[in-house]
Amino acid sequence: MTTTGAVAVELYGLPLEQFTAARDARAKELRRDGDRTVAAEVARLPRPSVAAWAVDLLVRHERDLVEQLVELGAALREAQETLAGEQLRELDQERRRLLRAIGQRARALAEDQGLHLSESVLGQVQATVHAAMADPGAAAAVRSGVLTRSLETSGFGPVDLDGAVAVVDAAPLPHTRRAAPDIGAGDAEQHEEEPRRHREERRDAELSKARADLAEAERVDRRAAEQAATARRAAEELDERRAALAERAEVLRHELQAVQDENDELTMRLTSARGALREATTASRSAGRTAERARDRVERLEREGAHGRPS
Predict the structure, then answer these.
(1) Nearest-5° angle of CA 185, CA 186, CA 191?
(2) Residue 38 contacts by C-beta under 8 Å, 6 or more apart in sequence?
């Protein structure tokens, strides 16, 4: 009997651009076969976001890498609980390395199917895998291979999974590790020792790479600190210059105000002087006319006196 979960596993493993058409065709096929309930559920399956589709792709093609990160998340949670500082630092370095590897593999797998993942989408892919490291529930959602949206977490704690998977309580996709050679009972112990040695060698190599990455990060951090110190000194000098300019501007504002006040006073005095000048001019003209009339009268009286005097 066909189940919604089984159909979802098929659909969410397809190239993203084929999802909608394949889902609708599958729902139509199920209705034709009489599975109306499953057909209705399949028809409602949401198209995954690009980031969710990329994670579903990783679960199908890079499951070992995904499992390494999930197991590393459990180790990190345990280290945090036991406050194992050195172990926590080493595990955190490995976490960063594996997340970078996850991003690279997600981009390569997507490009194999003709889709380029932007930096923003890659960030969502890494955030989703990081959430799977932080929360077992998120890990189960990622392992289902039918993720519909990206996940996120701010630390080690519960992750919001509402609407995150296409089928509620979806079972994890089967995980088949590399097939081991057929061995006899007498070789079992040796066979178990072989993968353990490989794991230790791989862990040593990863630890060496992580330490190299840490040394490079510390070098970059020191250079950034030096650049920050230089920028801080330059900022302090600029602040001092700005303060000096502000002080000078304040002095100039006071001087300008004094000049404006003096100009206002001179303007008032000039206006008053002009008024006095106008009054004096008017008075002068009036006095001139009075003097002219007085001269005329004197001359007239003198003439009259001369005519009336005996010879």
Answers:
(1) 80
(2) 2, 3, 4, 7, 30
CB 49 within 8 A of CB 61: no
User: For 235-282, what is each residue's pLDDT tens digit?
Assistant: 778 878 888 888 888 888 888 898 888 888 888 888 888 988 898 888
Q: Name the residue ranges covered by the structural domains of the chain.
A: 48-175
For the beta carbon of residue 76, count every other beta carbon within 10 angstroms: 19
DSSP symbol at 29: H
163 close to 149: Cβ distance less than 8 angstroms: yes
Residues pairing with 165 in the sheet: 147
Q: What backbone torsions phi and psi does residue 54 show, to the nearest 5 degrees?
A: -65, -40
Predicted pLDDT at 7: 95
In the chain, the amino acid numbered 132 is A
Q: Both ends of the chain: CA-CA distance in Å?
A: 169
| Residue found by looking up tokens 């003439």 in the block | 303
Rounded to two decimals, the pTM is 0.56
Instruction: Say if residue 51's pLDDT is above 60.
Output: yes
Residue entry with tokens 């008075």: 283
In 3D space, the residue among 8, 3, 6 whose CA is nearest the CA of residue 46 turns out to be 8
- Size (the chain), residues: 311
State residue 192's pLDDT score.
Answer: 41
190 Cβ contact partners less than 8 Å away, ≥ 6 residues apart:
none
CA 166/CA 10 separation, integer angstroms: 12
Packed helices 85-112 and 63-82: angle between N→C axes, nearest 10 degrees = 160
Cα separation, 111 vs 255, in Å, equals 71
Q: Tell me, what's the pLDDT at 98? A: 87
Cβ contact 26:11 at 8 Å: yes
